Fold:
Amino acid sequence: MSDLADFTVTAAAAGLRSGDFSSVELLEAVHKRAAMTEANLHAYLTIDRDGAARGAVAADSALKKGTAHGPLHGIPVALKDNMVTRGLETTASSKILSGYLPPYDGTAVTRLREGGAVIFGKTNLDEFAMGSSTENSAYGPSRNPWDPERVPGGSSGGSAAAVAAGSALVGFGSDTGGSIRQPAALCGIVGMKPTYGLVSRYGLIAFASSLDQIGPLTRTVEDSVAALEVVGGHDPADSTSYPGAVPDYRSGLKSGVAGLRVGVVAELNGAGIDPAVQAAVDQTVAQLEEAGATIVELSLPSIEYALSAYYLIAPAECSANLARFDGVRYGLRRLGENVEEMMSNTRADGFGPEVTRRILLGTYALSAGYYDAFYGQAQRVRTLIIQDFQAAYQQADVLVSPTSPTTAFKLGDRTQDPLSMYLSDVCTIPSNMSGDPAISVPIGVDADGMPIGFQVMAPALGEPVMFRVAAEVERQAGFTVRARHASSEVVT
Amino acid sequence: MPVEIDIAKVARLARLALSEEDLDRYREQCEVVLEHAARVQALPTDGVAGTSHPLPRTNAFREDRITECLDTEEVLAQAPDRDGDFFSVPKILDEQ
Structure:
């Protein structure tokens, strides 16, 4: 039999149900793969050996009794370490939360447990999800399975590296400005940000609350659907959770794109995009046209300002959210003469440079005298971006672009220049500003053999059409090259 | 548009006890980012309302029912310092 660590979620779930192998065997295969790759990749901060073993035994027992439920039943799952897990260390890759054992599970985690998923471990990220390379982790960077000299992207770089290398069958991350889609693109896997509100944020350590969204990192589009089916849906514990019924994501997967209108966004294609990336994207667009889609060239002028607006809105929300880390109730405490000094010493010592920078930026953008010119204006620009998207979706069913302007860059290449790092997210940020869903699908590799991602964006709750187009992109690209640490082919 | 930041004031508002050297470095980096971010000011937005949130939701209500809450012992076990069932902190007001 092929190595179980290389199975897709869909294939593994079928194998478990037909009794070809057990969840315990599947877990063992993933442990073996992690033992082989972790020294190089550092995808994980914590591997929960005991908890995962208990989960796999329970999953097998439910399978025997016929009480198994859900498409992730018995499947080893990697969770980004900003998703709180009861009694399992959760750090958000920050020194300020070192040793923190949350007293509760987040809603997405609860739904995974209830769905029989086996929580294998907690993955590395840029501290508090702020970054695009996973180099901003207080516990050291993760590396790209395709080339360990390069970054896996970020901030969900650990989950992306694990899924690409086979040390998890599926990973979860959070996406505030591209933090699921960009690392998925750089690691040659599928990464999906759902419509804002579709997945509960309860128990996701907040970075920018109006932009954050939990989503899956998988090896196929169908696996992405399976993962979203488990974690999505209304949650009374999150007041911003979408209250309506969850759409059927699955039925259109094999429908193809004939008759659909695919919009190519002028502002996100061409200028500023690496020529090899753009060439691959253009080829995919041509394949979609060949498959029966109508291609529409569109302009969304205000998204030229999305990155600028994002770097006011996200830091503003971050400075408010991260005020809770003050050394009072949990995490690090540094002593001081009085409580204010204690808090200021704790925060200065506990936060890394990127988090400190964003708190300062946000505090400035919200401070008296600057609020309207910066934060207020960014909010008005956000309205214009949403209006541009709404107009575009009158003319097209989905919009497409590269996911990332470049393929994976070398460690250290962008750490000295924050602005150059921020530009990594220029194509992904607009969908966070509008709250719409978007997915990255791998379509090929560049001359260095590094993967290229193709982004499909859809209007709010447009996941069904987004998945439908993504599935066609996947079929057309026939992307089967796997990471070098996962030598065998993925079993679908 | 060049942006000038009173970084010491901002750091104090954010409760960050940073060294002079760190303050200088952060001021330079923040000014570069803000200069880029200030591009938003070039876009005319007269009569445009701001969006603080992508969902057009106001309040989410639920029944006011007693439900299970977090375990006191489990929560306090994470406290850097405690006094019985309370979080303990250095004194807040100077005694006169």
